[in-house]
């Protein structure tokens, strides 16, 4: 019983810690202006133009840290604070989202793979627990196994997301420095923002993998009971 309690506490604590980390880091560096004084929108536009992505628009979107790149509409969408703000945090986030646009232009393999997994991951994640619960209550191991397979598709999506996000952050740092948007003394702060944001994806993937492994162990126990 105690083992299960610790397990579920870990599943709760890991993502909460990651969210607190990214929020505290972002809030800290959202108050630190860049030496060049450019806004997040200007950062995105400059990097896009320097990479020949004139067709990609930079738009303002509502919400806190709701920034994202939409490959369907070819738009970099920045939250209000980052769109209008002059902070290191805003510049780092804007450059990161443009990093995804550059990946899209270059047909980055992991990005393409993740896009292909989106519809599969969406419905498989919703259906997986239905089959797992059916398998538990009816002791039908085949139903339980089907649920695990469906959940594995969602876990695969989480894992593929990691190289996509880390690569976008790497591209962001290269672009921020090469374009002169941030100075050498500001690189460390920008990296902290990007690293903290990446931890949310690492946490999500870790929780997903741990839960999948637990279900696999339960399945092997069901098989041995048979």
TrEMBL record:
A molecular-function term among this protein's GO annotations: peptidase activity
Record carries keyword Membrane: yes
Transmembrane parts of this sequence: 129-157, 193-219
Classification via Pfam families: Zn_peptidase_2
InterPro entries: Zn_peptidase_2
Keywords: Hydrolase, Membrane, Protease, Transmembrane, Transmembrane helix
Superkingdom field: Bacteria
Stated name of the protein: Zn-dependent membrane protease YugP
Source species taxonomy: Bacteria, Bacillati, Bacillota, Bacilli, Bacillales
């Amino acid at each position: 019983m105690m083992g299960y309690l610790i397990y579920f506490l870990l599943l709760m604590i890991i993502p909460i810690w990651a969210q607190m980390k990214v929020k505290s880091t972002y809030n800290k560096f959202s108050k630190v202006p860049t030496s060049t004084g450019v806004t997040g929108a200007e950062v995105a536009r400059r990097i896009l133009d320097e990479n020949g992505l004139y067709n990609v628009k930079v738009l303002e979107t509502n919400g806190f840290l709701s920034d994202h790149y939409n490959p369907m509409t070819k738009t970099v969408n920045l939250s209000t604070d980052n769109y209008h703000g002059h902070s290191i945090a805003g510049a780092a986030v804007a450059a990161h989202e443009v990093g995804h646009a550059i990946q899209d232009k270059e047909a980055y393999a992991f990005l393409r793979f993740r896009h292909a997994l989106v519809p599969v991951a969406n419905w498989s994640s919703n259906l997986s627990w239905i089959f797992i619960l059916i398998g538990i209550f009816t002791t039908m191991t085949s139903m339980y196994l089907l649920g695990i397979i469906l959940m594995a598709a969602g876990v695969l999506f989480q894992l593929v997301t990691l190289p996509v996000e880390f690569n976008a952050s790497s591209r962001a740092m290269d672009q921020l420095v090469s374009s002169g948007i941030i100075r050498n003394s500001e690189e460390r702060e920008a990296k902290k923002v990007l690293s903290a944001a990446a931890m949310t994806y690492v946490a999500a993937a870790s929780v997903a993998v741990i839960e999948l492994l637990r279900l696999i162990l339960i399945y092997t126990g069901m098989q041995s009971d048979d």
